[in-house]
Write a structure and sequence with these properties.
0% strand, mainly alpha
Length: 82
């Protein structure tokens, strides 16, 4: 029984290693321009998220929304999950 367990652990390690190798291979397949474009899009998304958060904070400060509504919109919004 110990032998089967050891084989199973080795198999799992092998599977994990294959997944890591595939992920590394995918990373290497992007051209320089694709990487720049992706980074620019990520930066733009971060700025949009920051702008949304600032606007919500201003509304909270002026009393247009409650703290509960602020937290719900900040933490439950799908845009902030990434």
């Amino acid at each position: 029984m110990h032998k089967k367990r050891q084989e199973k652990l080795e198999w799992k390690e092998k599977q994990k290693q294959e997944i890591v190798e595939k992920q590394e291979k995918v990373k290497k397949n992007f051209s320089q321009s694709q990487k720049k474009r992706r980074k620019a899009n990520n930066d733009w998304n971060e700025w949009e998220d920051l702008q949304k958060e600032e606007n919500l904070y201003k509304k909270l400060k002026k009393g247009k929304i409650t703290l509960k509504e602020f937290n719900e919109q900040i933490y439950d919004d799908s845009d902030f999950d990434e």
